[in-house]
Structure formats: structure tokens, C-alpha cells
Amino acid sequence: MHKQIAKNTSVMGxxxxxxxxxxxxxxxxxxxxxxTSAGLEAFIVxxxxxxxxxxxxxxxxxxxxxxxxxxxxxxxxxxxLSIGQDLIxxxxxxxxxxxxxxxxxxxxxxxxxxxxxIADSYRFGLAxxxxxxxxxxxxxxxxxxxxxxxxxxxxKFFIPAFSPVFLNLSFIAxxxxxxxxxxxxxxxxxxxxxxxxxxxFSFFALRKRNFRLKFNLKESLANQQIIKMFKLFVGxxxxxxxxxxxxxxxxxxxxxxxxxxQGALASIYYANRLIQFPFAVVIxxxxxxxxxxxxxxxxxxxIGEFKKLLIFSFQNIIFFILPVSVVxxxxxxxxxxxxxxxxxxxxxxxxxxxxxxxxxxxxxxxxCGIKLMVNSFYALSDTKTPAKTAGLALLANILLSGxxxxxLRIGGVALGSSLAAAFNFFLLYFFLxxxxxxxxxxxxxxxxxxxxxLSLVWGGVANRLWLLEASPYLxxxxxxxxxxxxxxxxxxxxxxxxxxxxxxxxxxxK
Length: 510
Hints:
By secondary structure, this protein is an all-alpha fold. Helix content is 85%, strand content 0%.
């Protein structure tokens, strides 16, 4: 079972990795062409607002209720397909309504999300114009994500894994070809082009499985499984709203340039992009694969298997995320310098972004752990508990960011989010134990310490290697190679499971 999960996770991870690599190229081009300009900050806000609703109607809905419920009918393919068709019908009308509502209320949404823009009529007006266009992306990605939920239920991961690549390719092509003509506006049109491509690829992948569009809303709403999904989603809705309010907290605080510095909003965006890279490649890929089996185990009452799969998943988070977190802490400024510091990206932008990355790194493990824990609750058809813990974490985030912003500026906003994530993680762990009994996390202590030790060694080595007189690209290559050697040899000697399995696989290949 674990081999199949590892194989499917590898497919998801490969697609996500490729998407994130192109995403980095996109961000490098954005930093080079637009730096931390007012136009770029207007786009960041404009793209963020539909994405707030995206976490509700797109991945939020598909991950929390659509994928688990559809997966539970995996042995009844015809019924699963029928439910999926009814779901897309209902969501088509629902997304159209929210898209139009978003366009009509764009001015008020921008004022709420980025109050620091109100005093700057140029930035505010541009953000409103961009937001009206980017709301069409919500409609496109909302349908694409829920089509992917049906593909996940079929255990078909290739298209969902690789379709996001088209979004980043659209940005790259748009910036390179049209940036000098359209300015920052090219980012909006690139997003829409990418959304169209994602939707088409997911749709045609399902057409091969006899999926058909239907527009009988009354009939679709009569499907009891659709009603069940939306009842379950009530709890997830509050959780999504609370999560997005946490994102808005970062945006609000980082828009207060008189405290955090000019360009801080763009800087926290760039830092987040780096944090999201390992998060997406590892945890998004892993959580979407294991969600299918967790849902089946929960429905069949196999709680022992449920816990084993959860422990296996956390081992992977520890092994892949902990080293990255520590290296981000040791060489945050060099990483920002080599990735973004070119063109219009100034020294002030470098300092602000590296500060945000440093303090976000403390929370990276917890951001990943929360995603897996929350999906575990969803597999158990419990959407209320994650909403409650997220609400408490939101209050903690507001309080901590409000306090830490003064001594640490933009770093305080990032640290507030990291500490709130740790608080949320331990709350979720406490409630999961109450729900299913002892999970067995105590078995991970020795494993965690061994990986943490190797991570510290790699971080220290990375810090020293960066002081060498050499090309920054060569130094990053050497640091990466050193990390692979340390984790490969040290992990084998310390008995780390993932490393030993890898070596056994290599030896068998030979």
C-alpha cells in the first residue's frame, strides 16, 4: 500500500515540482521586470482576492468534501461519475453568481484587503481594475479543481499534477512577449489564459471516462450526495473563511508601509513563494494522494490502518521539510539574493524579503503538518473541528503580528503567522487524539531528532560554504550537493527509513 502511495505521490510531486520551477521562473521575471512597483503590488492584491474565494470553491471544496465523498464510491464507478456530473452542474451556476458578485464589489474588497492602498489613488484604482478581471479566474479554476476531485477519486493523478504548469507557462510567455506593451496588466491576462488551459485539460481527461456536462440544476440539487456535500461543507466554509482571514491579516499588516517599509507587501509575496515551494511539492502532493485511502479507511472503520498511514505521511513531512526549513534559516538572504536580486529588485527589497523568509521558516513544518491533520479530519467527515482551531489560530495571528510588527517590521508579520501555525497544529493534534485515540506520534520522536540533527549539520555547512569566494550559482550547487550527500549517507547510517528504502531501490536497479 505504501509503495503505491509513494508512486502516486511521486507523480503528484513531479508535476508540482515542474510547476513550481516554472513558478520560480515566473517570479524571477516578475521581480526583474516589475521589482516591488505599485503596479505589481496592485496585481498581487487583485490576484489574492479571487484566490480567497478559490480556497472556498476550488481546492477548499474539492479537498474537504468532494474528493473524500467521491473516493468513498470508488468501487461504484457509475454512481461516482453521476455524483461528479451533478456536482459540476451545481458549481457552474454557483461560481457564475460569485464571479459576478465579486466584479460588482471589487472596490470594497480591495479597500478591505489592502487598506493601505486607499491613500494612494493610483495603486487603489489599478488594484480595483485588475480585480474585476481576475474574478473570471475564480470561475475557471473552481471548475478545474472540482473536475480534478473526480480524477483523484479514479486515482488518476497525472493531469491534476501537471495542469498547473500551464498557468506558469502563460505568465512566462506573457511577461516575455507583452510586458513592454501591457505593463503589469499582462499578469492579469496571463492568469486568465492559464485558467482556461487548466480547465480544458481536466475536462478532456474526464471525457475519456464518459464524463458529460449537464445543466439540469433542479435534478442535480435533488441528488442526496450533493446535499450531503454541501452540509459537510458548512464547517469547511467557516474554516476556509478563517484561513483566508489569516492570509488577509498578513496582507493588511504588510500594506502598512509607514511601519513595515515601502514594498513590504511585494516582499512578503516573494518570501511566501519560496515557502510554498516545498509545501506544494511535498505536502499538497502527499495529502491529495493519501486523502483517497484515508477516506476509505474511515468509511470502513479501519482506524488502525488510518493511523499507520498518518504516521507514514508525517515521516515524509519530517524528512523532506525539516532540512529545507533549517537551510532557509541559515542562508535566507543568499537564497533571496540568488533567486530574485536582479533588475528592479533593490537592496531594500532584498532585506525585507529575506527577513520575511527567515521568520516564515519557523512555521514551515507546522504549515505542512496542519494541511495533513486537517485532511485527516475531513476524511473522518469532520469539518467543524478544523474550523474551530483555525478560528483560535486567527486570533493568535492577529495578536502576535500586531505586537511583533513594531520591533521586527515585516519579519514580525511572518513570525506571527509561524507562531499561530504552531498553535493551530498542536490544537489539531489534541482533538485528533480525542477523536481516534493515541495516534502514535511518540514513535516519531527519535526519527525527528535524527533528521533534525542532519538538518542542523547541513545548515551549518551551507552557512560556511556561502562565505567562499566563488560564483553564487556555483555555491548554491555545492550547498545542494552537500545536502544530498549528508542526507544520503548520514540518513543511511542513522537508520532513516526513507533513505534506506531509497538505497535498496538503487541497489535493486543495479
